[in-house]
Write a structure and sequence with these properties.
This protein is an alpha/beta fold. 23% of the residues lie in helices and 11% in strands. α6 links the parallel β2 and β3. The chain starts with 90 loop residues before the first helix and ends with a helix.
């Protein structure tokens, strides 16, 4: 049986009873230090390991060893600094800045100038917390979450119904500004015979040259260039019905309204008719019924193109095509010249040609979809329609070019 633990010498506390080891605490001049005198051989020579249960020499492991009698700094003390208490500072210099690189602007301020009030940062901008500046809202409050609609519940897309405009031929790289490519036997033949038209190039196939020579005697103002049909297809487009004839010419000059009134016959005014084929067909009807001129709007009307000339079938060279900035003012000018302005509307009383036999009529035709505009309608002296006996079957209107042709025929009828 082993003796109790308290009787073993290695487990006895330093302050307890019992015999002390030589060199322990309380022995020798260095009383109070743990461990005996240090051997002369250094810490690694001749040092004995502590016995079991005895505290290691020199204090806890890793602690700094120093001697109380030895000064902590062996370097000599500095003697260049003044010893003793610091002298008191001058009160005037106590509040002065140590470094003042900015000039004193107060000395340069004029006596009568007002001084900017000294405001602190708190006065310039009130201190507000984040909760006061912007309320804390969750994602659900900022944007309500809505379930995605199924594909079958989506509304069907209705495309915008655009107005039909026929494709124009692509401009050739060698087409100068202010010129137009005319195509078709009738349009080209009429342009060649028009002395007011300036011609530049005439491209004809062998068949087109023979057909054009049968209608217009040679010599022509310029010699033709013999080409193949494929070259004209590449120049004007494959969908263009050119009939083997193409002419590069300058645009026609627009005559004045007074010059157009010198010609006999009615005057046709088109209110925003934008389809070039309709304008060309109206020019063709105007030539057939002896109209004096056709007036279109400057902005909402087609330019002089090959499609317009092809639809006019040569009437572009014989019927003047005028362009007006304001149709209402043009109608007022025609009234001042002694004309009777008649607007064409499908829902009005039928137009009667014999009742207007003693008047010079100005026939105003509206656009393809909306008809006459309000200001144009109010400027007219009379609004009339076209008699259609078969309108009971659901037909209540005609194409704008067809309606113009029927109205011109009615105006030409005297009995």
């Amino acid at each position: 049986m082993k003796p109790p633990q308290q009787n073993r010498p290695g487990n006895r506390s330093p302050g307890g009873g019992g015999p002390r080891r030589p060199g322990g605490p309380g022995d020798g001049p260095e009383r109070g230090r743990q461990g005996g005198p240090r051997p002369s051989g250094g810490p690694h020579h001749g040092a004995s390991r502590p016995a079991q249960g005895e505290a290691p020499r020199g204090g806890p492991r890793g602690a700094a060893r120093f001697d109380e009698k030895r000064p902590r700094d062996d370097r000599p003390a500095r003697t260049d600094r003044p010893q003793g208490p610091r002298p008191p500072r001058d009160p005037e210099q106590a509040g002065a800045r140590r470094f003042d690189a900015r000039p004193d602007l107060r000395a340069e301020r004029p006596p009568g100038a007002q001084r900017r009030p000294d405001t602190t940062a708190a006065q310039r901008r009130p201190d507000t917390t984040a909760a006061q500046r912007r309320p804390d809202t969750t994602a659900a409050q900022r944007r309500p979450e809505t379930p995605a609609a199924p594909h079958h519940a989506e509304a069907p897309h209705t495309p915008r119904q655009a107005e039909y405009r026929p494709a124009e031929p692509r401009p050739s790289p060698d087409t100068p500004r202010g010129t137009v490519w005319l195509y078709g036997l009738h349009a080209v033949g009429a342009a060649v015979a028009n002395p007011a038209r300036r011609l530049r190039r005439l491209l004809l196939t062998a068949e087109a040259e023979s057909a054009l020579a049968a209608r217009h005697r040679q010599p022509w103002p310029l010699p033709p260039e013999r080409v193949e049909r494929g070259r004209l297809d590449h120049l004007l487009g494959r969908d263009t019905v050119h009939q083997g004839a193409a002419l590069l010419a300058d645009l026609l000059a627009t005559p004045a309204l007074t010059q157009a009134l010198e010609r006999p016959g009615p005057v046709i005014v088109l209110d925003q008719v934008s389809d070039p084929r309709n304008v060309g067909a109206i020019l063709r009807s105007a030539q057939a019924f002896g109209a004096a001129a056709v007036v279109v709007q400057e902005r909402n009307a087609p330019e002089e193109t090959g499609a317009l000339a092809k639809a006019a079938s040569g009437a572009l060279e014989t019927v003047p095509l005028l362009r007006a900035v304001n149709l209402a003012r043009t109608l007022v000018a025609l009234k001042a010249a002694g004309c009777w302005v008649v607007g064409l509307d499908a829902g009005s009383a039928p137009l009667s040609g014999p009742s207007l036999a003693e008047r010079r009529v100005v026939l105003v035709v509206g656009s393809e979809g909306d008809g006459l505009r309000r200001l144009t309608r109010d400027t007219c002296d009379e609004v009339a329609g076209i008699a259609m006996p078969g309108s009971g079957g659901g037909l209540d209107s005609l194409n704008v070019s067809v309606a113009t042709a029927v109205a011109l025929y009615e105006l030409a009828r005297r009995a």
